[in-house]
Amino acid sequence: MTTVSVQTYPTLWVETVLDNSTGNEVHTKSGGSNSSSIFGLLWPSLFTSCIIVANFLTLAAFCVNKKLRTYNNYFIINLSIIDLLSGLRLIISVLHTHVGYYPLNQDLCKIMNGISRSLLSASNFVVVIICADRHRATYDPINHFMTRSKRKALLLNSLAWLVAFAFWMMFITAWEFIDNFDNGRHCVNKYARIPGVSVVNVVVVFYLPFFLISILYLRIYLKIRKTRGGKLVERKFDVDDNLSTAVTNVPKDTTISSLNVAAIDMDVESVGEKQFARDMPRKSTKQASPKTNKKPVLFDKSIPKCFVLLPVLPSKRESAAEMRKATRTLLFIVLSFVVAWLPQSIIGVIYSIDPLLIVQGLPRPGRLFFTWLASCNSLLNPISYAVSQPLLRSTLKDMLFIHCKERSPRK
User: Fold this and answer.
1) From residue 107, how far is each of 19, 42, 167, 177, 334 by CA, in Å?
2) Helix locations, 271-319, DSSP H
3) pLDDT tens digits, one per residue of 243-289
């Protein structure tokens, strides 16, 4: 048995795998029909189309409904943009799989390789940023709420793009242009021919984000678990939102928990204000100053006269519903990230140790499945948004079934 050197060993493995994985079976089997070629083109094309359409509809929903453009959803918009571009990038991969060779020239190959890895890393870095933002919202809710803004969200999203493109365009594109590297007929990256260096790809794309996400989300989970699954936090936030008043001259034998206080919105333009005015006792309504008609005021006939009631101050933290929705959305995003990337990342580590373990142990359908599974993250993300956000789901329904809705009378 001939011993293969370290330099030629990865090259032989890469060429063998790509010939078997992307080569059209019609060209390798004489007298074969075109059915295998059509079948091999149909499913990747359908998968790529689903990614593009799903993320396009998500972005369209954010454009149509202004209520969706909140601070937390700006991270979702950024992820949708990245996933949409990733889906468009997969069109070249579909052609590569079908025709059996890379359809573009060498220079475009080097540039597209850098862009592809940058998009994948930017998507995973955004998930890390979302986890970090949720972590601060969980452990420091007041300061997080006071400092958050759409400008801050744009800066954090831009940071993910900047870090990802700065690293991968230097690590792939600039390195290959400077070295005048020959990518071959399958547009193979230079680092893929060096097992020790190729592990950098797996670490940066998956294991580093996965390590950070695991720590942050574990801390978020432990914090929520301490509050009995979030129910105690929800009650606390609801009470703080409704009872953010200043009370003076409280008797020693009187406790706040014994009071039955209700927050009443005295906006003269509201529809329910007239009905409330008829039902409210005259003694209580006289206590309301005309100058505070447009502000929420606390009324209750059981409150002693020694209490001085002030207007309700605006909440200085996320509402319980907003926090619950953001945490649920993050959970689905993290699960999609792990399910899509974990198998391919394990394969990458095994390749870095011994490429023959992959060549001989994993058949061609398995290699194709796990390669496309990593791109499935771009399809699972928009599904996660729709599942976790009812407003986004209803907006998508209105967009897709607008003609049916116009025919039926609205209640």
Assistant:
1) 21, 29, 19, 8, 35
2) 272-279, 282-286
3) 444 444 444 444 434 434 333 333 333 444 444 444 444 444 444 44
